[in-house]
Every structure is written in C-alpha cells, then in structure tokens.
Amino acid sequence: MNYIGSKYKLSSFIVDEITRIAVPLERAVFAELFGGTGAVARRIKTKAKEIIVNDTEAYAYALLRHYIGNTKILEAHEFIERLNALQPIEGFIFNNYCAGSGSGRNYFTDWNGKKIDVMRSAIERWKENNSLTEDMYYFLLASLIECADALANTASVYGAYLKHIKMSAAKPMVLRAALHETSRARTQVYQEDANKLIKQIKGDILYLDPPYNHRQYGANYHLLNTIALNDTFEPKGKTGLRPDYNRSAYCSRSQVADAFDHILSQADFEFIFISYNNEGLLDETALKKICNQYGSYQLIRKSYQRFRADKQNARNHIASRTEEHLHVLIKK
C-alpha cells in the first residue's frame, strides 16, 4: 500500500539497528504500538520470541491481525475463488462512493464498488455462520482491503477522489490473496489507544512510529475503515467521511509532547526505538529532552525518499528527500 509514513523502504534499516543495539530478537518480546500496515513487525515476525502489535484504526487492525496474528498455514484458495465468482451487488460502497449511484463521489468504478460490496458481505456472512475460522476471516478481510486500496481512484489517501477514473482504478477487481508467512512466535494483536495499552504490556524491545504531523489517519483512510467495519451511516460532506474518527494526540502540536512523555514514562521495556520524521510537530531537541529523563539516549539519522501522494507530480531530487530520525532510548 502507498501509505503515509510507511516504513517499508526503511524497515531493513530499522530492524538492523534494533538488532545491533538491543537484546537478541530470538529471546525478546517485541512490541510495535502504531503498527499501520505492519512493515516493521512483518520483518520481526520470524525472528522474535513474541510479538505485540497494535493500531487504533480498524483497517490497520485487520491487516495486523492477518500479517502478524496469523502464524499457521492457511488453505485459502477455495475461498478466494468463491469470492471472485460472486456477481456484483449494489451495496453501501456503491451507493455512497461510486459515481453511478448518484452519490457524486468517485472513489471506485461502479463495477469495483459493487464487487467490494458483494465480497465484503460474503466474508461477513461466512463468519456469522461459522464457515470461517477467525484466522481465515482476517486473511480474507486483509486481502480485500489491499485489493480495494489498489483500485481506489485517489492520488493515494481518501481525503479526496479524482474527477476522472485513472488507469489503475479502471481495472476490474480480482481478489488476490494477501501474502502470508508462518512463524513460531507468540503473537498478540490489539486495537487500542497506544498510551493506554502501554500500561498493560511489558517486554524487551518497544518500537514506536506515531504520526508526526497534523494528518489524522482516521480521516485519510476513512473508506478503508468503512470496508473493515462493514457498517452503515450517513457519510459526511463531499468526501463522504465517517461521522466520527480517531484523533491522535500525536497529531496535535499542543498535545504531542505530553503524549510522548506519558508513553515513555509508562513503558516497561528496556530498549525503545522511536521513528520520527525531521519535519515532525515535535522537534529533535524537545524529543531528546523527554527521552533523557528516562535513560541513555542516542539519535540515528537516515536520508530517504519522502512519501508522495501523487507519484505523477514530478519533483527535483533534493525536494523529494527527507531525513528519518531513529531515537534510541535505553531505559534505566
């Protein structure tokens, strides 16, 4: 997924630094509390003794529940074939997010919106009549979320849709199986506020990758949440926002310092790694000051290609790079 703040390109660098500094992963309890699409945790999955992952957003929880929570072999081919064979229906996604319904919104082609509707309905129905295990349910849901996202008629996030259907969004939807990797690690997957969950867990290595600017994930990925939740409501405004969405203290300039101080003070982990962009709401000096209260601190810098919502909007090489900061705290 083309995801705001994704650590996909940086995941090797992050895991290498964690491996270099912290206790060996094979005997460690590793936790990631702002899991997103799971780019870092997925690299840890086959290495750590135990993995704890969390994200407040419903779509992210579904992805994490599959990518991290599913550790055994899954025989899913028959379910994928059955979903692809279903005839499209006019459901909530078509009626509210496709132009052909008269909604005025153009997030998906009419065909793809109807295919999302019929697949999502079938997955939920199979769950309710016990045709699916919980593991298979989240495997299919993660597969659907990823395939829907790949066909969305947006520049990337769901804060707006494009006026005309772009080439990638015009492709007819065919459900493809999400990747799956087995593991011997014990896993726990949560959908909680990270600053509350931190009081309930403990381990060896804590990785934090909170939002770093004003962009709320609940608003930017509202449509993926709607697919994950499979609920109905009256969409708000031109973009069809959900009536309410999670608002993170890490996206507020007035709250971010207190949020960091709280989670670090409560963390029962020896090694803490924090990914934070150099353009974040909290500057490097302020975050260093907070970390220094709780143990020894160091900062590791890494230059990389910045996230671009519209890949067709060309920028020069200098403007397209930014610097990732990996703050390292070893607690007393």
Characteristic terms for this protein:
332 residues; alpha/beta; 2 domains; seven-stranded mixed β-sheet; 14% strand
Task: Write up this protein.
- This protein has 332 residues and is an alpha/beta fold.
- The protein has 2 domains: 1-71 and 186-211 and 249-332, Vaccinia Virus protein VP39 (Rossmann fold, 3-Layer(aba) Sandwich); 74-181 and 217-247, no CATH class.
- It is 34% helix and 14% strand.
- The chain contains 12 helices and 7 strands.
- A 7-stranded mixed β-sheet has the order 3-2-1-4-5-7-6, sandwiched between helices.
- Strand 1 (29-32), helix 2 and strand 2 form a beta-alpha-beta unit.
- Mean pLDDT is 94; it is low at 310-319.
Put the structure in a nutshell.
By secondary structure, the chain is α/β, with parallel strands linked by helices.
SSE order, one letter for each helix or strand: HEHEHHHHHEHEHHHEHEE
Helix count equals 12
Low-confidence stretches: 310-319
Annotated CATH topology of the largest domain:
Rossmann fold
In percent terms, what proportion of residues is strand?
5-15%
Overall CATH class of the largest domain? Alpha Beta
* CATH architecture classification name of the largest domain: 3-Layer(aba) Sandwich
Radius of gyration: 20 Å
Q: Quick one: overall form?
A: globular
Beta strand count: 7
Can you identify the CATH superfamily of the largest domain? Vaccinia Virus protein VP39
Task: Tell me about the largest β-sheet.
Answer: 7 strands, mixed
